[in-house]
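Anyone able to model this chain together with aspartic acid?
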Amino acid sequence: MKLKRLQVNTASPAQPRGSVLVIYTGGTFGMAFDGSGTLVPFDFSRILGYLPPLKHLALELNVVSFETPIDSSNMGPDHWRIIAEVIRDEYDRNDGFVVLHGTDTMAYTASALSFMLEGLSKPVVFTGAQLPVSEPRSDARENLITAIEIASAKKDGKAIVPEVCIYFDYELLRGNRSRKVESMQFDAFDSGNYPLLAKAGVKIDYNHSAIRQAPEGPLRLHTRVDPRIAILKLFPGITREAVRSVLRTPDVRGVVLETYGSGNAPTLPWLVAELADAIARGVVVLNISQCPGGMVILGRYETSKELLRIGVIGGSDLTTEAAVTKMMILMGEYDRDRAVELIQTSLAGEMSV
Ligand code: ASP
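re: yes, here you go
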């Protein structure tokens, strides 16, 4: 996967008030209809043609693009690593970063980046669009311009939002608390278990008490990823064979168990036996809820007591996106015991403890 640096002639002002790096990865944002009516990526260096106001932001804008922009359904750990490395390499030169990304897996990439970029003290704002920037009714213009504003926003010389977040449809959300919830309307994301970090109207209203404090110390990257993770989503009537096929996936190291309500599962003896067997084989089983709001409290009901007893660990209010990426990165970086300890610790504001 190659990157290219693009010349976007924003005619940098003599005294820019800051510098933002835009990392363009693809997605609907940068597409235009070709002659046959199919959406295909357009040459991003032509962005100013679609977004003349970029010239008036009084910022130095740098752009790095995936050489071949991709639909975010094709994003994976290698792309997360590349984005993290670009941010590290450009860290000192820029006040903030905007990642232009397809909406489909944006919450996964934003979650992954929040775990990869330990010690982050500058904004990394993900955004994209539901309609291509070339369309008259597109949401791309507002999303990108406000994302750039947020990425460059400072108070007393310090970044106002020193964390990985998603800006979409006038709302700023914590990245590792977000989920894509809508594919037709413009309000594509929500974060049911965490308040908005900001709301954009005539001015941008920051919710300072919800925004993370910048940590002390330098930026440290964690880019070793172990993808041997699986998801087991329970449903009434699930068969032993279906459960087995997931828990016995060859080489699987971690399973995200999606349970009901506050972490409940059927008390079927075979289910408990299959889970206990997986745990005995060293598989880490992390319990998160299928509910978009609330959290797992293991042992609250009889239906989760057994899970606690056999060694299933509780994921509190982690989203699926945060649970999967957190497990992949911690299992890639640490041995099993350390990973289990850290999975239950909030590392980047991703869960309530
Ligand atoms: N399929 C597109 C993507 O995720 C959708 C979008 O960008 O909104 O790349």
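The first helix runs from residue 47 to 50.
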